[in-house]
Structures are given as structure tokens and as C-alpha cells.
Specification:
This protein is an alpha+beta fold and 402 residues long. Helix content is 33%, strand content 14%. It has a five-stranded mixed β-barrel. It has a two-stranded antiparallel ribbon with strand order 1-2. It is elongated.
Length: 402
């Protein structure tokens, strides 16, 4: 009983830990790269890098729908003009896409997979001067989260898919004061001739990209309908990611949307039932072995009602495990074998745990000794056709505990 309890608790802990998807320390070049990267405490970058490295997705309440592309590239777009804990949705023309530089936020890696992708947005295809360019960036942490969803946001892919297209971008606002000498809003005279951006405001990180159908034309942003579903589009990120997290760089987990939550719970429940089904199969094998040994019809030793009840328990436990995962993160990828195994294990061990509890405290569930106490059976119990796995009757003789 103690071993089963321990196995059940370990399974639940593994699910909970995985669901957190804590990317505060990202493995870059074989080393853990924190949200601060390699910046030195006390420097500007030390304060800015955690904002760049956010990996939570904004909720509907996080968006400031009054902010447009024109606002972000205007000469009035100076520090303090907007709030960095707000998100925006911007429509613009992709003038350029390129690999970012070597930065402390990414621990100065030179691996393109862990470098930012710089995207330059302009109002349209004709106004593309440096004083019209808004910088928006894809970061390694968001890229890794989407990779787990089967979405490729590598710089190479984004260059081929985005450049020259009209897009709708969502993401967090960020003011990169490091570049004030190179922005027209803070260096309007451009005496050095080195200005390459309209302002220091960015969308950084980007959390959603949608390519708008070219047939929609190059109308101004205000003419576009607010719903992305109104467009025929080629979505780079087909899933709309949301969460209930506020801007908090110390807690970056992403709870699911209602639909994703339901899907995670349902799949978890099914996998939990599969885990219990494995116990049933093991138990049935033991039943037939004992039946052949004692020349007893196996059908007399099997209680199908108890098997059904045990599968329901496994289904419920898998659903509970799904809830634990979903409330912590919407990034529960069932393409990851470890996740599938964790849910199956929870169903297997969890049913064992509950049945063991019922047998130890039969009065808790009423007169459960003959009904639910041995529901589903324990694949590890065998002996004399009694409490043998696979949902056998409790009245059998010589029940052993292997």
C-alpha cells in the first residue's frame, strides 16, 4: 500500500512539474541562461532582459486596443508614453526579417535557434524609411514553446513566410532605451545619420503572428476588422494563446484557454483509463492462469461490473491529472512521450491507491467490501482465484498478495 501511494504521488508530481514549463532558465549552448542572461547586476540590461525574455501569453484584459502602429512610430513615442505591462495587436507590412545580434539577454549565443528574430514593420509597402519602422521580435523562449506545439518560428522560416506580407502581430510592449541614440523619437535630428528605427518602442516578445490575405489589400490599420477570423489567412501560430498571468517575470506559467483546458482534461482522462486498462489486462492474465491451474472456468472469477467501475476510476483520475496540468499551463504537449506515460501512470497507480484506501477503510464508502473494494482488481494480487487482478470477484478463496 505504501509503495502504491508513493507511486501515485510521484506521478502527480511529475505531471504538475512538467505542466509548469518553467523557462526561466533556458538551456543555451549547454548552459542555463536565466531571464537576466549574462548581464551584470546594476546595469540597464539587467533590468531590461527579463522583460525581453517574458514567456507568458497576454490575456484579453492585457491588451491596450487604443495603441496603433502609427502611435508606436510617432515622434511622441518616448519613454513612459505607454506601459510595458500591456500587450498590443498591430497590423503592418513586413519590410524586413533578420537574425538578431549577439545579446546578453540570450547569453551572447551565436546559435540562430537561440537568438532573437528582428522583424521590421512599416505602415505599408511604400513608407519603409527608417523613421517608419517598428521593431518587433521573436524570442527563443516563445520559439521553444511554439515548437512544442508543432509550430516553427525559426528565423529562416519567418524570413521565407513573412517578408513582403501584410501581417497582424500580437505581443508585449517593450521600451528598449539602449537604442535611444538610434531612434528618431529620441534623436530627431539624426546628426550622426545612424538612426535605423522610428522609436525605442517594440513588440517584444511577439506572441502571435498572422499573415493576412494579400487580397485584403493595403488598407490602413483602422479599416481592418478586429476579429482575425474575418480574414483568409495563413497562420504562423494557429492557436490563440492566452493566460491569466499578469506581468510577473518570476512566474511565467501559462494557464489554458477554456477549449484547451477541456481538451487536456479529456485526453488526460482517456489516458488515465488506458492506465487502468493495463491493470485490467494484467489482472485478467492472472485470472486465466489461476483458472487453468485449478480447472475453474475463468468466467466465474471475473466481475465485469467491477472492471467497468475501475475503468471509470481511472478515467476520473486521468481527468484530475489533466486539471492539474491545465491550470498551470496550456503547454501540455501529448506528442511528448513522457507526458503520455505520466498520465497513464497516474491512472494506473491512482486507481490502485483509491482501491487500496477503500479496502482499508470500507466504512468510508459504505458497505463497499464486496462491491467497489476490489473494483478493477490489482494486477499485482494473485492467488486461488480470489482477489486476482482484472476485476475478479471478492468472494474467491485463498486470496494472496504477491
Amino acid at each position: 500500500m505504501k509503495k502504491l501511494t508513493l507511486l501515485f504521488l510521484i506521478s502527480c508530481w511529475c505531471l504538475f512539474t512538467y505542466s509548469q514549463q518553467d523557462l526561466s532558465n533556458l538551456n543555451i549552448d549547454g548552459q542555463a541562461c536565466s531571464l537576466h542572461g549574462t548581464s551584470k547586476e546594476g546595469s540597464k540590461e539587467y533590468d531590461l532582459n527579463p522583460l525581453k525574455n517574458r514567456f507568458n501569453f497576454p490575456t484579453k484584459q492585457d491588451f491596450d486596443n487604443t495603441i496603433t502602429l502609427q502611435n508606436l512610430i510617432s515622434r511622441e513615442a518616448i519613454k513612459g508614453k505607454f506601459l510595458q505591462n500591456k500587450a498590443v495587436e498591430i497590423t503592418g507590412y513586413v519590410f524586413n526579417v533578420k537574425k538578431g545580434g549577439t545579446e546578453t539577454c540570450n547569453c551572447k549565443t551565436t546559435d540562430p535557434l537561440f537568438m532573437d528574430t528582428h522583424i521590421e514593420l512599416t505602415p505599408n509597402s511604400t513608407e519603409t524609411g527608417a523613421d517608419k519602422r517598428l521593431i518587433v521580435e521573436v524570442t527563443p523562449r516563445i520559439r521553444e514553446l511554439l515548437e512544442g506545439q508543432g509550430t516553427d518560428w525559426s528565423t529562416e522560416t519567418l524570413v521565407s513566410k513573412l517578408k513582403g506580407h501584410l501581417v497582424k502581430i500580437q505581443g508585449w510592449l517593450f521600451y528598449d532605451e539602449i537604442h535611444e541614440p538610434q531612434a528618431f523619437s529620441t534623436n530627431p535630428d539624426n546628426a550622426s545619420g545612424r538612426n535605423w528605427r522610428a522609436s525605442c518602442w517594440e513588440i517584444h516578445p511577439i506572441t502571435s503572428i498572422e499573415i493576412l490575405d494579400p487580397e485584403e489589400g493595403m488598407a490602413t490599420e483602422e479599416n481592418f476588422p478586429s476579429s482575425a477570423t474575418a480574414f483568409t489567412s495563413k497562420a504562423i501560430a494557429p492557436v490563440s494563446f492566452t493566460n491569466n498571468s499578469s506581468l510577473n517575470t518570476s512566474s511565467m506559467s501559462t494557464p489554458s484557454t477554456p477549449l484547451n483546458t477541456l481538451i487536456i482534461i479529456l485526453i488526460g482522462a482517456i489516458l488515465g483509463a488506458v492506465g487502468q486498462g493495463m491493470r485490467v489486462i494484467v489482472g485478467m492474465k492472472k485470472v486465466y492462469d489461476e483458472a487453468m491451474k485449478n480447472s475453474t472456468p475463468a468466467e466465474q472469477l471475473i466481475e465485469y461490473r467491477q472492471i467497468t467501475f475501475s475503468l471509470i476510476i481511472g478515467f476520473a483520475i486521468g481527468g484530475v491529472a489533466g486539471v492539474l496540468a491545465a491550470v498551470s499551463s496550456d503547454h501540455v504537449s501529448f506528442s511528448d512521450k513522457s507526458v503520455v506515460i505520466a498520465f497513464i501512470t497516474a491512472g494506473y497507480a491512482g486507481t490502485d491507491f483509491i482501491e487500496g484506501f477503500i479496502k482499508k477503510y470500507p466504512n468510508v464508502s459504505g458497505n463497499a467490501g464486496k462491491g467497489g473494494a476490489n473494483a478493477g482488481g490489482n494486477g499485482g494480487n494473485a492467488g486461488g482465484g480470489g482477489n486476482v487482478g482484472g476485476g475478479t470477484k471478492a468472494e474467491g478463496s485463498g486470496a494472496g498478495n504477491s
